[in-house]
Each structure stands twice: as structure tokens, then as C-alpha cells.
Amino acid sequence: MEIKLELTKNPKEKPASENLAFGNFFSDHMFIMDYEEGKGWHDARIIPYGSISYEPAIMVFHYGQAIFEGLKAYKKDSEVVLFRPDENFKRLNNSCDALCIPRIDESFAVEALKKLIDIDRDWVPDAPGTSLYIRPFIIATEPHIGVHPSNKYHFIIITGPVGAYYKEGLNPVKIFVESHYVRAVKGGLGEAKASANYAASLKAQQMAAKNGYTQVLWLDGIERKYVEEVGTMNVFFVIGDEVVTPALNGSILPGITRKSCLELLRSWGLNVSERRISIQEIYDAAENGQLKEAFGTGTAAVISPIGELCWNDKKLTLSGGKIGELSQKLYDNITGIQYGILPDQFNWIVKV
Ligand code: COI
Q1: Looking at 130, 162, 194, which one is the last position of a domain?
Q2: Which ligand 1 atom sits closest to the C-alpha of 70?
Q3: What are 265-288's pLDDT values in tens digits?
């Protein structure tokens, strides 16, 4: 499919890298493509970033048929690269299936993204720890009030320069283990990157933040016993010589950073398991001196060491509140590959 181009006549001023934080600035252009039943996906275009007007009746406003992705572009010595974009569009299609949204052509999406990033290449920051965050999303745009899958959609990609997601950067974060609210249950939308999952997380997140915690660790929705994931990350624990992360069970987001960490850890010959792990097991391991460290993994968060857990008022300090050895090694390796400092031994990098 041809991608029509309409370039901005008013390029914006770019923010200074020290002011970036996360999610506040948007590049000059965006990609957009329409879907209509009978016509399929059509009218792909790159246009200036800006407001879009919709009728108040469009279905996403009422029934939440919305999914998204998150990935990043990195710059080193004026070369711009993407990290495993094919994985993001594969997962977007899985989310499409979960929410009755028509699938997109994954290789077309990668090409469209490369074109968008190429046009806004100057928006990719190059200061250490910065990148261009990329947010592809699909929303239901049929103006209709009955509950059924929409017959119209927009697939949009916006981008913007970012620094660290957490104000802590690579410093350990404090995590509240949530025993009351749940994020998702098996058979629901947990493994899709549905906007609804993030709406469902807000209440607990707000309460945790009020008590000084950066994120919530979700337990399973049935027994509130087994660890699932942290707000915007998957989670790993080092217990004795085992590196363990909860197995993908239908209610956990299959993170691309999670998958990449598993591949790296296995390539280092470590004893890695994807299995069910209870919060009690983690507390027991801490008591026996077996819990070495814990960390979260995610596109926005990269690798985020966990310095403290609080479960039913029981507080646990991990790695003496410092960055664990494995967290640091994974961070150095993942970012080393992303920024072109280390060889791309797994072929994860796609040049723009
Ligand atoms: C990401 O890590 O890219 C995410 O999508 C998490 C987020 C909601 C910021």
C-alpha cells in the first residue's frame, strides 16, 4: 500500500534532553491508516502531528475498544535503529484478536514505522539514557451506541523523545504488593495490550503512590497468591541460583523486554525458569537468605531494580536497596545492544 506524505510547514522546537522525562513531547509527524468493513485497511498517510476530531458517538469512547504498543528508536553517531519492531506488531495483532479488531499487515507496519522515524529522524535524541518512544495504537471509530465490534478503526503511530520512565532511573524502586485489587484474570484481557488493563490498574496505582510506592505488583486474580506482573513491567526474581519469572498464563502481558532478557540469561548459561511463583515463596526465600535480587523489565522502564516490597504491611528490602548485580548486567547488555555499543548477536536491531 502506498503511504501518502504531508509534511509539516511548522516544525516544532525540540526540547532539551535534560527536560525530557517521559511522555511529554511529541514529534512533528504521525502515521494514520483507516479501516472500514468491506474496504479493509486503507488510506495510509504520514501527516503533521496534531488534533483529530471525532464524533462523540465513536465506540472507543463508550466500550473501550482500544489497544496499543510501545517501542523505542535509538540513536548512536547519527544512525537510528529500532529494537525488535516485528515483535511489537505481532503482539498488536494478538491484541487485535482479543478485542475483535481487524489485524494489520505486520511487515507493512514495520515499513510505515521506518518511514515515519526517518522523516522525524532529528527527533531521536542522542543523550545517554534517552530515546524516541513510539506509541502505535488502534481505536474503534464507528459512531454507534450498540455493543458490538466497531466496523471502523484508526491505526495511529505517534512518537516523542523520552528520558527515563521512573524518576528513579536505574535506581531501585519501591513496589507495593496488591492484595485487594486485581489487574486481570485468565480468560480476560490480561495478555493483550488493551488500554482497559491500564484503566483497571489506576486505582491501586494511585493508592500505592500515596503511600510512597512507585508501582504495584499484581497477584493472580483468583487466589491473590501468585505473582503476575508489576504495573508497567514484567518481573524477575533471583532465588539461590535460579532466575525466575512468572510463566505466561493468559493474564500476564508477554513483554518483549521480558523475552529478550530470557534469551540473554539463557545464552549466559544461567538456570532460568518460567513458572508459577507465589508471593509467600519470595518472602520465605528472603527469610532464608536465598532472595538475591528482583527487577522489572519493560520497554519504557528498561530494567528496573526492585529495592523494596511491601505485602500486607510486611516490608522487605532487596539487595540492600541497591542495584543488583544481574539487574545491572542485563541493563548494560540490553541497552548496549540497543545503542549499538555491543554486537547485535541475536539480530534484534532494525536500521531505519
Ligand atoms: C511500555 O513499556 O512501552 C509500556 O507500554 C508501558 C507503558 C504503559 C508506559
Answers
A1: 162
A2: 3
A3: 999 999 999 999 999 999 999 999
